[in-house]
Amino acid sequence: MRTYRVAIVGTGGIAAVHADNLARTGGRAELVAACDVDQGRLDAFAGQHGIEGRYLNLADLLAGAKPDIVHLCTPPMFHIDQAIECLEAGVHVLSEKPPALSLADFDRLEKAQAKGGAQFSCVFQHRFGDASAAAKELIGAAEFGRPLVARCDTLWYRPDSYWDLPWRGTWNAEGGGPTMGHGIHQFDLLLHLLGPWEEVTAIATRQDRATSTEDLSAALVRFENGAVATIVNSLLSPRETSEIRIDCEFATVELSHLYGYSTDNWTITAAPGHEEQVNNAWTGQPLERGSGHSAQFLAMYAALDAGRPLPAGADSARQTLELAAAIYASAFTGTPVRRGDIVPGHPFYAGMDGEGLGAEVLDATALRAARA
Ligand SMILES: NC(=O)c1ccc[n+]([C@@H]2O[C@H](COP(=O)([O-])OP(=O)(O)OC[C@H]3O[C@@H](n4cnc5c(N)ncnc54)[C@H](O)[C@@H]3O)[C@@H](O)[C@H]2O)c1
């Protein structure tokens, strides 16, 4: 088991969570360097976390600090170019979400990974609690049975002041609203639990907030295994909650939390007559660790130690990004979208707003609402 040399790029809000969680990996990681374009923020962060290497740009950090892994904690529009720069230098990348602003951008990763031999992974920390591993094991297996119907709600509340940060709420900088920026965590977990999605029909709308993207989306998704799910991503909901519910043949699996869970946030309900089989199956699983960044970091180190592909790697991160693109495509064209439809040449391949269609549709809807 080696100790990995880690660097953090972007030393704002989420970087502190990364630094704190790196300190909880039991010595598996050494935080050797940090980078920010803002010298004041960089110095404050490095001072607080005892980091020696301080850099104002990524190229200097890669050359000077020689990290094994770079954590990208920069605003969304920088993720893909910075990921490619690291991968081409042979350095593994753990990028904050969203992994890219479009499928076209994301697909540039493949060449960079092949060139440098390093791997990309996206922060999807909800996949990594013990209870989600247990649920993944049992959903679709004999004990819980086939998943039939599901719902996945990210119902959060953000006042207008939330969009004061310049990169928030624009297609160019963030790639979308709550679908790309907030609900993506929750529906990533849904996909992790249910497997590949097949077809989506969606609405995305701007109900109330002073943003140029949607502030609400709602989708109806059919999965390859036949399950049907609704997904709602809202920034308008005063009682905030993040929830997943999956009804299988013999058990209902429910997760209710906000930004992260412990096993206590999960509830399993057996169908009548199936109590013993369902309860024994659930309590027979390891159920200690909650979700969180450190759980993902440790899973990443275990994969690197063993020479395995990284968890939440490029392939599965792409499936989640593809569902986000398909939600927008369906919402703004008014038609169902199937997995695999959004390929080069499709308007939603190059960007989540379909070459300006999203902005047009949202403006028209907002105008209609204002007149009513
Ligand atoms: N996984 C989660 O639960 C979670 C939670 C919050 C935010 N995020 C994601 O984390 C990312 C950062 O969010 P935040 O709230 O920390 O943003 P932030 O604005 O607080 O911090 C971003 C930092 O990056 C720096 N920066 C900007 N351009 C840079 C560049 N080219 N090179 C180096 N540094 C640069 C800024 O100066 C700033 O210090 C976003 O993608 C966001 O979606 C993830």
Descriptive tags:
372 residues; binds nicotinamide-adenine-dinucleotide; Dihydrodipicolinate Reductase, domain 2; Rossmann fold; 2 domains; 24% strand; 14 helices; alpha/beta; 6-stranded parallel beta sheet; 8-stranded mixed beta sheet
The mean pLDDT is: 97
Assigned CATH superfamily of the largest domain: Dihydrodipicolinate Reductase, domain 2
Order of helices and strands: EHEHEHEHEHHEHEHHHEEEEEEHHHEH
Detail the poorly predicted runs. Answer: none
Helix/strand layout:
Elements: E1 4-9, H1 13-22, E2 29-35, H2 39-49, E3 53-55, H3 58-65, E4 69-72, H4 79-88, E5 92-95, H5 103-106, H6 109-116, E6 120-122, H7 130-138, E7 147-157, H8 171-174, H9 178-181, H10 183-194, E8 197-205, E9 216-223, E10 228-234, E11 236-248, E12 251-257, E13 266-270, H11 275-283, H12 293-306, H13 314-333, E14 337-338, H14 357-371
Parallel strand pairs: 1-2, 1-4, 2-3, 4-5, 5-6, 7-10
Antiparallel strand pairs: 7-11, 8-9, 8-14, 9-10, 11-12, 12-13
Helix pairs in contact: 4-6, 10-13, 13-14
Structural summary, described in words:
This is Oxidoreductase. With 372 residues, this protein is α/β, with parallel strands linked by helices. The protein has two domains: 4-125 and 295-309, Rossmann fold (3-Layer(aba) Sandwich), CATH 3.40.50; 126-291, Dihydrodipicolinate Reductase, domain 2 (2-Layer Sandwich). The chain is built from 14 helices and 14 strands. The chain has helices at residues 13-22, 39-49, 58-65, 79-88, 103-106, 109-116, 130-138, 171-174, 178-181, 183-194, 275-283, 293-306, 314-333, 357-371, and strands spanning 4-9, 29-35, 53-55, 69-72, 92-95, 120-122, 147-157, 197-205, 216-223, 228-234, 236-248, 251-257, 266-270, 337-338. The strands form two sheets. The protein has an eight-stranded mixed β-sheet. Helix 4 (79-88) packs parallel to helix 6, helix 10 crosses helix 13 and helix 13 (314-333) crosses helix 14 (357-371). The structure holds nicotinamide-adenine-dinucleotide.
